[in-house]
Amino acid sequence: LTQSKELLESQSEQAVTLDRLAEEIVNMRKGSDQTASRLDDALGHSEKARGELAKSAEVSRSAREMINKSWESVELIDSAVSLIDEVAFQTRLLSLNASVEAARAIQDSEGSFTASGFGIVAQEVRNLADVTAQSAGEIRTIVDQVRSETETAVSNVAQTDDALISVQRTIEQNSELMANIAEMESRARQA
Cβ–Cβ contacts within 10 Å for residue 122, how many? Predict the structure, then answer.
């Protein structure tokens, strides 16, 4: 009877142990299912981040193109300003020549009306050349400022591109790791 009682107690203990083991397996299965669900969520977020990153890269590329077009416009403006500078210089030379001719005319005819008018015109041409040169200088200052700002913008966009590429690599690596973990988890559930 003692052996029967011991055997019954042993079977009872084994049944309790099996119940606990079964409960642990169910809990592990639930944990595994939760992990798999979280991995699926993480993979979904990773894919979404990859899509957003692709959009950001496209915006950056577009910004770079716009900056390059602006740079081309700045170069055209710079060329126009150089032409204006040259015209102002030539106009100053013309006004100088006109002043010399006016002085000669005054000496020849001792202050004739025509010579005096010629001197006034020469002075106005000189004034116009000075205003043109001053305006060209102001435009050149603005062009130089825009050029500097454009160079800074190009540098910033390049840095942004580098950062986006780095983030993209990190996301791809994380996605690969999560996919590997999900595959391992799936194999463990099947076993």
Answer: 20
